[in-house]
Amino acid sequence: MSMTSRAVTRGFAGLIAGVVLVAWGSPSWAHNLSFLNDTPLTYMKKEDRQALNSAAQVALNTKQDGESLDWSNAGTGNPVSIKGTVTPRDTTKHGDVTCRHVTLVANAKGQSQSWTPNVCRTGSGEWKIQKK
To answer: Which domain holds residue 42?
Structure first.
């Protein structure tokens, strides 16, 4: 796996892990976040997140704004089928820095969930999720 792939994988894994930690990290929040029960995120295992991360890497490097890449968790060993899309959009360039929003969609058991982080890279370097 290339350095760029590892960086994007870590970045998206961190994003997804952060959402999971917020959802289940505090008993006082658990009651208020019960709406997350049975969403695709709750069914995602490490291997599923890796499949999504790999698809995001490919999409960020190969797709034009608005072009989607399909992804699925086929072959990850998860009995729950999770499918979705990765769609880069809103590419901006300032000098040698390129930034993009990327919409990640996951569908499982009739539920759909999406996230749209902003990622940037310098030159052909690593894509990094930008904190707001």
So the answer is: 3-129
Which token pair is 10?
A: 């870590």
Determine whether 66 is exposed, middle or buried from the number of CB atoms within 10 Å of its CB (0-12, 13-18, 19+). Answer: exposed
- Number of folded domains in the chain? 1
- DSSP letter at 42 equals H
pLDDT along the chain (132 residues), means of 10: 53 54 45 69 89 91 97 92 96 95 94 92 84 78
Residue 95 φ/ψ, nearest 5 degrees: 65, -125
For the chain, counts of helices (H) and of strands (E): 4, 6
pTM: 0.72
CB hemisphere CA count around 122 (13 angstroms): 0
